[in-house]
Write a structure and sequence with these properties.
It is an enzyme of class 1 (oxidoreductase). Helix 3 packs across helix 6 and helix 5 runs antiparallel to helix 7. This protein has 14 helices and 7 strands. The chain has about 300 residues and is an alpha/beta fold. Bound molecules: phenylalanine (PHE) and fe (iii) ion. Phenylalanine binds next to helix 7 and helix 12.
Length: about 300
């Protein structure tokens, strides 16, 4: 496989692997930019060149604008100090380095305060297409351009506030599906056709092609409650993608909806199967699921 972000896998499947000693009260660590090797910088440059050649015409214009605003085309792994000057000027967000997995409440608290937590390590040259936890290329190239967009920046902050609230309802697993199917694997409808914006897609060469072009996956219009009933796959390309009409609508709807009654309903309702298509779904692509079937046979 060739896929992006496994932060939530580790978060949910392997809670025991959490480090027990926080490196600092808010779990942040220095980026230590001077410690990157020439090989590390070359890995970033290869990944950057590959994705930036692939993405025009496939990715949301907001993402391309973010690359530009943040000057991410500058060679080498970005120095957070410099990145944060530009990001802060654009939307007031900051990127902070963490050692890997952080506790849920810490993760949400950072988002709620417009701090995006990022891994500082970069994958090895033999891991360009596959790694088990998000590295700095996924976290920075994948996520940070959208944080330079004012509306999406507000959405992720609101998500952090909602995340803290979800803990009181024991509903993190449901809310995490919203993050997964928007922030990580979301598609946007535009006048020119579907475009990518999810970080898990845009940081992955294979999924940047698959999510848009392959006949296998379902592509369905975004519906909040529907998304929160839909499990996701953590080990390969998604079998269903959800398509938002606009980031403004996504922000407005998630902010204006009180999730408490939603969590109560979801606690009673059974989960859907990943590939289910419902009578009320706004179906854009009814997927063949051939890719998932080929994996099952292999
Ligand atoms: N409105 C949500 C709640 O009541 C919070 C939220 C906002 C969640 C935006 C996700 C995204 O919990
Ligand atoms: Fe991610």
């Amino acid at each position: 496989g060739d896929f992006g972000d496994l932060r939530y896998i580790r978060r949910m499947a392997l809670p025991d692997s959490e480090p027990t000693l926080p490196p600092s009260p808010d779990w942040t660590i220095p980026q230590d930019w001077a410690r990157y090797t020439a090989e590390d910088h070359a890995t970033w440059d290869r990944l950057f060149a590959r994705q930036s050649a692939l993405l025009p015409g496939r990715v949301a214009p907001e993402f391309l604008a973010g690359l530009d605003i943040l000057r991410l085309s500058k060679p080498g792994i970005p120095d957070f100090a410099e990145l944060n000057d530009r990001l802060g000027a654009a939307t007031g967000w900051q990127v902070v380095a963490v050692p890997g997995l952080v506790p849920d409440a810490i993760f949400f608290d950072h988002l709620a305060n417009r701090r995006f937590v990022a891994g500082r390590f970069i994958r090895k040259p033999d891991q360009l297409d596959y790694l088990e936890e998000p590295d700095i290329f996924h976290d920075v190239f994948g996520h940070v351009p959208m944080l330079a967009h004012p509306v999406f920046a507000d959405y992720i902050q609101a998500y952090g506030q909602g995340g803290l609230r979800s803990l009181d309802f024991g509903a993190l697993d449901k809310l995490a599906r919203l993050y997964w199917y928007t922030v990580e694997f979301g598609l946007l409808k535009t006048a020119d056709g579907l475009r990518l914006y999810g970080a898990g897609i845009v940081s992955s060469r294979g999924e940047s092609l698959f999510a848009l072009d392959d006949p296998s996956p379902n592509r369905i219009g975004f519906d909040l409650e529907r998304v929160m009933r839909t499990p996701y796959r953590i080990d390969d390309y998604q079998q269903t993608y959800f398509v938002v009409d606009s980031f403004e609508k996504l922000l407005r709807q998630t902010q204006e909806t009180d999730f408490a009654p939603l969590y109560a309903r979801l606690a009673e309702a059974p989960d859907l199967a990943i590939t289910d298509i419902l009578p009320d779904d706004a179906v854009i692509t009814r997927g063949t699921q051939d890719y998932a079937r080929s994996l099952a046979k292999a």
